[in-house]
């Protein structure tokens, strides 16, 4: 087993580990142990030496650095941790499936949690004090299970007077597990297609 742990020289492993985290900031220590075939203690030591914080701290840093302030609802009402938010443009949230989110027998996530993550992110994207879901066309691509991490990525496709179209894709790893197209009504009447406010608006 020691041969497996020492498969890559330390410096080379640390370079690849830093690259893996840069490419996928949501990767967990457990996933890194499988990727590099080393113990979780080795991964933690590598991160420590490289000055890379653990997943939850990385998420906090990303959130602090790169999201606009949500206007349409309190941040705690967004289901999942908001990682990135560019109002009227795009957003990302992460939602970890825990025991309270699954059916007890199958350990499969209840669908309304997956929907709620996507729906609340779609609403949060709208740069308005009042934004409500008017319609949703959704598709559950595959079941999500206990301890899987759902990454929702939302994109504002268009904004017109009083209405926005938002598309959301939810991933587990590289696999799409949910897709939704949302129509969000909002209070502002001074927008034009594309999400920008008129130059003469307050």
Automatic annotation (TrEMBL):
Keyword Transcription found: yes
Residues covered by the HTH deoR-type domain: 13-46
InterPro entries assigned to the protein according to its UniProt record, in alphabetical order: DeoR_HTH, HotDog_dom_sf, Transcription_factor_FapR, WH-like_DNA-bd_sf, WH_DNA-bd_sf
Keyword terms, alphabetized: DNA-binding, Fatty acid biosynthesis, Fatty acid metabolism, Lipid biosynthesis, Lipid metabolism, Repressor, Transcription, Transcription regulation
Record bears the keyword Disulfide bond: no
GO biological process: fatty acid biosynthetic process; negative regulation of DNA-templated transcription; negative regulation of fatty acid biosynthetic process
Molecular-function GO term, any one: DNA binding
Protein purpose: Transcriptional factor involved in regulation of membrane lipid biosynthesis by repressing genes involved in fatty acid and phospholipid metabolism.
Homology family: Belongs to the FapR family.
Designated name of the protein: Transcription factor FapR
Organism expressing this protein natively: Paenibacillus tyrfis
């Amino acid at each position: 087993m020691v041969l497996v742990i020492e498969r890559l020289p330390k410096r080379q492993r640390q370079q690849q580990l830093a690259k893996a985290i840069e490419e996928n900031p949501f990767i967990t220590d457990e996933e890194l142990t499988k990727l590099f075939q080393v113990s979780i203690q080795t991964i933690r030591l590598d991160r420590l030496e490289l000055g890379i914080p653990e997943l939850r701290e990385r998420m906090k840093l990303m959130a602090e650095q790169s999201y606009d302030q949500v206007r349409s609802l309190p941040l705690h009402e967004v289901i999942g941790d908001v990682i990135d938010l560019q109002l009227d443009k795009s957003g990302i949230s992460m939602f970890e499936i825990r025991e309270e989110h699954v059916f007890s027998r199958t350990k499969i996530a209840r669908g309304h949690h997956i929907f709620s993550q996507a729906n609340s992110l779609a609403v949060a994207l709208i740069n308005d004090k009042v934004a409500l879901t008017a319609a949703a066309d959704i598709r559950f691509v595959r079941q999500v299970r206990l301890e899987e991490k759902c990454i929702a990525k939302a994109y504002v496709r268009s904004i017109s007077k009083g209405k926005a179209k938002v598309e959301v894709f939810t991933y587990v790893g590289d696999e799409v597990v949910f897709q939704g197209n949302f129509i969000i009504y909002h209070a502002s009447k001074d927008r034009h297609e594309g999400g920008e406010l008129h130059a003469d608006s307050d």
